[in-house]
Amino acid sequence: MTRTLLLPSLSQPTKKVGRRKEAIAAYVFLTPWLLGFFLLTIGPILYSLYLSFTSYNLLSPPRWIGLDNFRTMFQDQRYLQSVGVTLKYVGFSVPLHLSVSLFVAMLLNRDMKFQSFYRSAFYLPSLLGGSVALAVLWRQVWGAGGIVNAGLALLGIHHETWTGDPSTALFTLIVLRIWAFGATMVIFLAGLRQIPSEYYEAAQVDGANGFQRFRSITLPLLTPIIFFNLILDLVASLGAFTSAFIISGGSGGPADSTLFYTLYLYIQGFAQLNMGFASAMAWMLFLVLAIITGAIFWSAKYWVHYGDK
Predict the structure, then answer these.
(1) Angle at 160 between CA 158 and CA 164, to 5 degrees
(2) Which end of the chain is more exposed for a tag (fewer CB within 10 A), N or C?
(3) What is the pLDDT of residue 308?
(4) Residue 74 contacts by C-beta under 8 Å, 6 or more apart in sequence?
């Protein structure tokens, strides 16, 4: 009877060594990103959470005060005013922005001459939507001697200034937000391109008019795109800052009519050096945004329809 001598396999240890080297190489290449993530993102986020429970003016060490910053919020009239202004801005700008974007996307989804030019022209404002230069230009357009008043004067309508009037200043910011609809329009246009034309042809054969085709075909099949754009638009509107800062001169005026939440946060943190209160405001905004986003995700199962369901 012969015995077979079993020699240990060398392939398995070799594979483990090779995988370990690949893992080490991967972490070496990821090191800059990991350092940036922990030192420039996670670190400041956690530190701001600590500051939200302190009294800190940037000039002296933070002093622990517990929940006092959060209690003070709801006793601060300017804070409550900023919440009201922001909610009004979001309530008007988000639905109108989505509606205008979808309407223009449906127009551009048809065969027409110079289609590429129109798409580029409508998309261009969104590239400048959050820029300082556009906000400065917008303040001039809606100012006392701006283009809007010049056009209204030809019709016999005279108005002093739109950005300096408490009753119309927020309206100009809403119009600016709606005007920069290009990015949302492109996403809607991509969604419209994915809807099979056979659906519309079959509905037309059955005698459905344009509104019925929109309600029964376009709108249900676009609900995933609407859901996506709604989340992006909501986050962008709640975080709006540049336009209000430039048009109001950083004060939120006139009469705090453009005092966005983020603008008041900036005033508290960098103008009044109340960094503890500003940090508490930032975390309150994060909490509210998380709740609203979570509610939208929860409600999506009732109104968002996917093709495989």
Answers:
(1) 145
(2) N
(3) 52
(4) 80
8: preceding bond cis by omega (within 30 degrees)? no
Two tokens at 16?
């483990």
Q: Judge contact between 63 and 55, C-beta under 8 A.
A: yes
Closest CA to 239 of 286, 309, 178, 293: 286
The C-alpha atoms of residue 142 and residue 130 are separated, in whole angstroms, by: 17
- pLDDT score of 160: 81
Model pLDDT, residue 39: 87
pLDDT per residue as tens digits for the range 135-145: 888 888 888 88
Q: pLDDT category, 266, cuts 50, 70, 90?
A: very high
Strand ranges inside the chain, DSSP E: 54-55, 63-64
- The answer to whether 52 and 283 are in contact (CB under 8 A) is yes
pLDDT for 307 equals 63
Q: Does the structure show a pLDDT above 70 at 11? A: no
Q: What is the largest CA-CA distance in the chain?
A: 116
| pTM score | 0.86
Instruction: Summarize pLDDT for 152-169 with one digit per residue, the tens.
Output: 888 888 778 888 889 999
Nearest to residue 56, comparing CAs of 275, 292, 298, 284?
275
Residue 134, number of CB atoms within 10 A of its CB: 20
CATH architecture assigned to 74-303? Orthogonal Bundle (1.10)
Could you say which DSSP state residue 58 is in? S
Dihedral sign, Cα of residue 169, residue 137, residue 230, residue 191 = positive
Pick from 163, 36, 182, 165: which is nearest to 101 by CA? Answer: 182
Nearest to 186 by CA among 241, 126, 230: 126
